[in-house]
Design goal:
It is built from 14 helices and twelve strands. The structure holds manganese (II) ion.
Amino acid sequence: MKEEMIRKAYEMAREVYAGFGIDTDAAIGRSNDIDISIPCWQGDDVTGFEKSGESLSGGIMATGGYPGRARTGEELRADMERAMSLVPGKLKANVHAMYMESERKVERDEIEPEHFEKWVEWAKAKGYGLDFNPSSFSHPKAVSGYTLSDLNKEIRDFWVEHCIRTREIAEYMGRATGKTCINNLWIQDGSKDLTPLRLKRRELLLESCERIYRKNYSKKHLMDAVECKLFGIASESFVVGSHEFYLGYAAKKGLLITFDMGHFHPTESIADKISSSLFFVPGILIHISRGVRWDSDHIAVLNDDLVALMQEAKRADAFDRVYFSLDFFDASVNRLFAWVIGARAARKALLYALLEPTELLVQAETDGDYGKRLALIEEFKNLPWQAVFDMSCLKQGMPAGAGWIETLKEYEAQVLSRR
Ligand SMILES: [Mn+2]
């Protein structure tokens, strides 16, 4: 898209929005000032660097065989960097424990900050923040389908130690980058079929969590989050870490609760959970994803769910307590496309929400004029937010509109296709 066209369209959009009392320049600035965390695991189909030969397990599955998967830390970081250069605004890189780097085999209960030094050095050089996660799946000590709630104490001890270490590493990441690191606990524990041991499993998970979160860290460097799920592959009948379990635990311990857009009933929107949970937890980590039938991990796109989520965060004035990470993986497309599509969708939704003339909706409602309220909601959908997003891209020196696609096709031809 020509720069002149973008500027012209923006000038008109700015006037239109000004008529509704919205400052588009301020909205661009604000939307780009909110971190979006980019999941490294989209770049290699959740394989990791342990060279364990374990295939992906634990209720998740990457399907597709698009060529060019990153095989090393260097390749993965180069790919992420390329994709991230096409996403306006502040970004973090989200890393799983299985992306540790070492010359020798290091077990998951032996990981140390030093195994993530390359990630930290890279993030510092690029100005990214980092987020972190324990990795409980794709491991021989998880074959029972349980980790922190396994009946065998040795298995539980192993995973408790792993999780304790991830908190140390996350704290190190936060300290080293100078940007708070969120360490998000998600485990796959659950049962394919009917079980009489729901209570027992949850008692065990609770006990494990109490050990994991015993140590206090400065929230300046580390924030802990716990993520629920309704079901996964092979945990269709029962998931130990359910919504109620973790929401209760997060409220009791002052942790962040993680809401993944793909982890609830297909028709259940997480947008409504923002204003209800923020009374009880210090903050919310949103995993931006897209559930499609049984799968929770499709590439995020700009859909009603994503827009509603950002609108609720805006209307609740909660951007200082709601944090955003993408969480999906798709091996059937160019993996950099997946990152850019998802991250741009998130940034667009943020901007769309920030451009909403919310005050006018509130006024209509307080006047009791619900017809006008709905009419305005409909009319606001026609406001020229796309022109504002294009300007946001231009201001950040990156292609507006579909211009990024060719950039990544070139990278595919020059880099990915040679792997
Ligand atoms: Mn998630």
